[in-house]
């Protein structure tokens, strides 16, 4: 990689075009971030697929540079799915730009509700050697952070669905957009206060925040991106969950225990726990499913619970060789001499968080000493309260 005369930024590898993904439901912040990249990276263009035209049977594609629109086109829907049309059209269009030899950086500006993880994996997994995924960025207006995170409306109701079958909400979509990339492009907003900035820092503490107006956004877009590491950081078994924090009225509460939940008591407390924080996530252990790692993901007053596979402690030794090293390392951090990596690890982040109240509810859902002493065979006979949520 050579140096570039405009400040030592990396040059694209010979014969390859850099591709940076810019995502986010905050449309004004996203537009500002893209405009900044086009203005500061010579030979850059922006590629955008407008999914709002899907009702007419097509997705509209626009390619532009800092001077204006270069070309427009249409991509037909695939199985009545706008997001599928984007997937089908994106890589061929990027390869066409790369073959032209005139584009140094292609900025893929994702439509409002499209999530960066899916598109980053499409580009990295299906692109040719002519493309290098050089960065993934979500644009944020801090003053809108909490309103979007608290918005439990369905994307369909908000006119933001990416497919006819899209069942996501504004809140859970925004949470994933925010927490996936290593870089956040932050709009300088007069409406943002210290609480907004503290919430942003606590929701994604490892992110590099770059101010759109005068930060080195180009350097962030060209710095490189590891798709596998980003996916691992989001996996419930080895997610890089936030740590304890308390700043400007915003708190992050980390709750870690090495005893399973009673399924009925936890189920009865779900509404209280889900609504206790603007955002909560992690992994948990149910007594009636002692070998199953369950994922907890809540935003906007709605909770998603998923089977994330087995706890490593439940696997035979021979199966460990098939487990990714990052997963084994994460399990080692939580390893208990009696029950291995089985544990409760839940993180709640919110303004005005009632830590004591949360802890009291969570503790009340654990097995009692008597229930715990009865052993796994007895645990498995407890009422399976989560079957409906897990669609068993």
Automatic annotation (TrEMBL):
| SMART domains linked | CobW_C (SM00833)
Q: What is this protein called?
A: Putative metal chaperone YciC
Q: Which organism is it from?
A: Streptomyces aurantiacus JA 4570
Upper lineage:
Bacteria, Bacillati, Actinomycetota, Actinomycetes, Kitasatosporales
**UniProt xrefs under InterPro entries:** CobW-like_C (IPR011629), CobW/HypB/UreG_nucleotide-bd (IPR003495), P-loop_NTPase (IPR027417), Zn_Chap_cDPG_Synth (IPR051927)
Residue ranges constituting the CobW C-terminal domain according to the UniProt record? 250-366
Residue ranges of coiled coil: none
